[in-house]
Amino acid sequence: MRNIRIYAVALFSLFFLSIACGQPGGATQHKKTGNPMLDKYATVRLTTDMSKLQPHEREMIPHLIEAAQFMDDAFWIQAYGDKEALLSGISDTDQRRFAEINYGPWDRLDDNKLFIPGVGPKPKGANFYPANMSKEEFEGYCTIHPDKAKALSSLYTMVRRADNGRDLEAIPYSAFFREQMTGAAGKLKNAAELARDPGLRQYLFMRALALLQNNYQPSDMQWMDMKSNTVDCVIGPIETYEDQMFGQKACFEAYVLVKDKEWSERLAKYALLLPGLQEGLPVPPQYKKETPGTDSDLNAYDVLYYAGDCNAGSKTIAINLPNDEEVQLKKGSRRLQLKNAMRA
Predict the structure, then answer these.
(1) What's the pLDDT at 34?
(2) Residue 120, pLDDT score
(3) In 36-71, which positions are buried (b, 16+ CB within 10 angstroms) versus exposed (e)?
(4) pLDDT at position 297
(5) Measured between alpha carbons, how far is residue 334 from residues 1, 130, 291 in Å?
(6) Which of 36, 43, 187, 239 is exposed most, by the fewest CB atoms within 10 A?
(7) How many CB atoms lie within 10 A of CB 162?
């Protein structure tokens, strides 16, 4: 579940990484473009103290960013479709830049208002489903074909029409996005080979396998188990907000992160209070039957790179993951405060 996003002033997708030691991140002086659409946004310089990273950790970061870029490509397909066809048809530079920020021709900060003539309104199901498929058709088809309903409603499938034009087919992300998943998995494996933290190394290998096999729970478990890593990468299909028809299709995104261990130690005492606070919530006992895992933690990070869903329009400044309820019950959850993005 995504906790908080910056709406009033959002960040552009590519951030300048400062190697200066101890410099706090903050907003640069924003120059107005004169374009009211682009002036909703400001370019922000995000910094982190790279001196805290070991040489092998610094070597990992380019591989993780390259893996994240494959998530960007996949999300473009989920949110709109053919990125290059759209952008190449926009002659106005400012309008093209605005389309890049929004991952399509609809303004995400203005209720998906169309800003490119002739495209049409944004489909409720984005590009997860056939453009001419209604909610009623999908529900009716799943009722008539219960054997297909689970796959069609899966977090990790794209829905397309069969060759006969009537039937609906579920295509696993690992197959539909084979090029992107193969590319990202390769980059994650490259980063894993460089990692010396055992937990991080195992997570990156497992996440690479998850992208290829369409099974994310084991790597979510491993992500919760790793505690001592400095570099982190949240990557894969995660949130479902883009699917406004059913809210059931997960979007590709990625964050490349550096943990601020000093700030994380300060926050650790609050994480210990969370189970007690949850137990003390003023709700009837029947709503307290589930006991979450006790491994929950609360950490501070600097974000180096956003890609995909988390980079569309506004930017995330805090994360609460994993979303998988089974993982939460066994392992708890991790709350990530993106410190330098908050300062922006």
Answers:
(1) 81
(2) 94
(3) ebbebbbebbbbbbbebbeeebeebbebbbbbbbbb
(4) 87
(5) 11, 35, 16
(6) 36
(7) 9
> Phi/psi of residue 334, each to 5°?
-120, 130
Measure the CA–CA gap between 82 and 200, rounded to whole angstroms. 34
Q: Is 310:71 a contact under the CB 8 Å cutoff? A: no
Please, are residues 322 and 2 in contact by the beta-carbon 8 Å criterion? Answer: no
Residue 235, classed as helix, strand or coil, is strand
* H or E, element range at 147: helix 146-152
**Residue ranges covered by each domain of the chain:** 2-75+174-343
Token pair recorded at residue 210: 């998850």
What is the rounded CA–CA span in Å between residue 307 and residue 50?
A: 21
Residue ranges in the chain modelled with pLDDT below 70: 1-31, 271, 274-275, 288-295
Q: How many residues does the chain have?
A: 344
Name residues whose C-beta falls within 8 Å of residue 267's C-beta, 6 or more positions apart in sequence: 298, 299, 300, 337
CA-CA distance, 155 to 207, in Å (whole number)? Answer: 16
**Cβ neighbour number for residue 131 with a 10 Å cutoff:** 11
In the chain, the DSSP E strands lie at 2-6, 26-27, 44-45, 106-107, 113-114, 157-161, 168-172, 231-237, 252-259, 297-308, 315-321, 334-338
- C-alpha distances in Å from residue 71, one per residue of 110, 160, 197, 231: 25, 21, 24, 18
Instruction: Give pTM, 2 decimals.
Output: 0.88
Q: Which amino acid is at 77?
A: I
- Maximum C-alpha span of the chain: 62
Topology classification of domain 2-75+174-343 = Fructose-1,6-Bisphosphatase; Chain A, domain 1 (3.30.540)
pLDDT of residue 12: 34
Instruction: State residue 319 phi and psi, 5-degree precision.
Output: -130, 145
